[in-house]
Design brief:
The protein is mostly beta strands. Helices cover about 0% and strands about 40% of the residues. The chain contains no helices and 17 strands.
């Protein structure tokens, strides 16, 4: 996969999926289900006579990421991050293609496969990445505060499910309001050969992008933005993360001027690498 020169972080989670790595949680039957990236037939059109006060983003939607009160963003059922409610009172709908999951798989003795996990064609940026995950190669499920991507592509030897969880916690109003998501990857090897699975998560430094009230990021400002590595010890192991920040001359006073972060736990049997 290729990398953008600025503001992009890349994480690789490597695991040898030669044994069963599966969670006890099953996808509930009540969850909304849709083939990954499959458009709706006769979905209707936008309503221009209600613009600009009416917001109609179309049907490319997914469960929101985040809790109640302090903002959300969303990953659509085709695999792109597009819907943004980070700043109070501001709605933006635009795909940021560098914010992306991608997967690498290689069975012993077979050719490796690397693929961006988005069924969207992209906008011409990051041209060295392999886009266009096959439409219908698996299913998307949603039952807030969780959603799932069940990847079933014949070129992937391992069966992988991505579980997205927004931490809505009983009797906990502060953390349950954060625009935070936990992504758990479940890999199962149905073959008789060892399979290496690698997950890439990339993200752009978006600090300052929410200053304006426009519906897109045409007026984004990335002045003085920088990324840095952070680490901490948790009950589950060592946590490594990239903090997206910017140089400031004073304390933070605006809700667009905070920080973003991505992080993962260094678990046994996995290797973690990063690019700031």
């Amino acid at each position: 996969m290729g990398y953008r020169r600025t503001g992009l972080v890349a994480w690789f989670f490597l695991l040898a999926a030669s044994t069963l790595l599966w969670a006890g949680d099953s996808i509930p039957k009540a969850a909304w289900k849709r083939p990954i990236g499959e458009p709706f037939q006769n979905a209707g059109t936008k309503k221009p006579h209600l613009e600009p006060t009416h917001i109609d983003d179309g049907y490319w939607q997914g469960a929101p990421v985040g809790g109640f009160g302090s903002g959300t963003f969303s990953r659509t059922y085709r695999g792109d991050f597009s819907r943004w409610h980070i700043k109070a009172g501001v709605h933006k709908y635009q795909t940021i293609y560098s914010n992306q999951f991608a997967m690498y798989q290689k069975a012993e003795g077979s050719e490796a496969v690397a693929q961006a996990l988005s069924a969207d064609h992209g906008n011409g940026s990051l041209g060295s990445w392999k886009w266009n995950y096959p439409v219908g190669a698996g299913d998307y499920y949603s039952l807030y505060p969780k959603s799932w991507f069940d990847y079933r592509w014949d070129k992937f030897p391992a069966h992988v499910v991505l579980e997205q969880f927004s931490p809505v916690l009983p009797d906990n109003y502060r953390e349950s309001s954060y625009p935070v998501a936990v992504y758990r990857w479940h890999a199962e090897n149905p073959t008789q050969k060892p399979v290496t699975v690698s997950i890439l998560f990339s993200w752009t430094n978006m600090v300052g992008w929410f200053r304006s009230r426009s519906r897109d990021f045409d007026n984004r400002v990335s002045a003085s933005n920088y990324n840095h590595l952070a680490s901490a010890q948790s009950t589950e192991g060592r946590v490594l993360g990239i903090v997206f920040d910017r140089h400031r001359t004073a304390a933070v006073h605006n809700d667009w001027d905070g920080q973003f972060a991505v992080a993962t736990v260094q678990e046994p049997g996995t290797d973690v690498s990063y690019v700031t």
